[in-house]
Design brief:
Helix content is about 20%, strand content about 30%. With about 180 residues, the protein is an alpha+beta fold. It has a single domain, classed as Jelly Rolls (Sandwich), CATH 2.60.120.10. The longest helix is centred in the first third of the chain and has 11 residues, at about 25-35.
């Protein structure tokens, strides 16, 4: 726990509270922990490794489901997580065993969710806007994405996903692991 606290910049006490279910992590906190553990946020939340490996999920987060191959998973069965600070909602669309993590995000008006560069060091990520407008700060560059726009994230750098409008924004994030060979 000491190494995780040092690597993530999250206090040992906060990590312990999250593990015991005494505190709900924010999106910012999850970004720091996922970077330190070299897991995508989806992998951290579900305990499912991209490509099908599975690790135990923390008790306060949705438990991983069985593989979805060949079956319909109803909307009510889709694991979701809401950031207690911003109201940011993540719905995990893909299931364990699928080669990519596919997540639907609903970003409320005025919400801002920053992630550290280290969170992108081991993944490839595509963002696709379904409704509303997403402002993506990618390092020093600011991009405004609207319905139908996509953006493939490049080299790891600090990023912020924000909704600067009065309407909610919905977008899909597709994540795969980068080859380490």
């Amino acid at each position: 726990m000491d190494r995780l606290a040092e690597a993530s910049g999250v206090s040992r006490a906060m990590i312990s509270k999250i593990e015991r279910g005494q505190s709900s992590p924010t999106a910012v906190l999850l970004g720091k922990l996922s970077a330190a553990l070299e897991l995508s946020v989806s992998e951290l939340l579900t305990g499912n490794r991209l490509g099908g490996g599975q690790e135990p999920a923390p008790a306060e987060l949705p438990a991983p489901g069985a593989t979805g191959a060949g079956r319909v998973r109803r909307a009510a069965e889709t694991p979701q997580w809401r950031d207690p600070d911003t109201g940011y909602l993540r719905r995990q669309i893909s299931t364990a065993g699928f080669p990519a993590a596919v997540t639907e995000v609903t970003l409320p008006p005025g919400a801002r969710v920053p992630y550290p560069a280290a969170a992108y060091a081991f993944i490839a990520q595509l963002v696709w806007v379904l409704s509303g407008q997403l402002t993506l700060t990618d390092g020093a560059e600011r991009r405004v994405l609207t319905v139908g726009d996509t953006f493939e994230l490049g080299q790891p750098r600090s990023r912020e996903f924000s909704n600067e409008t009065a309407e909610e924004c919905r977008y899909v994030v597709v994540v795969t692991r980068k080859s380490t060979a």
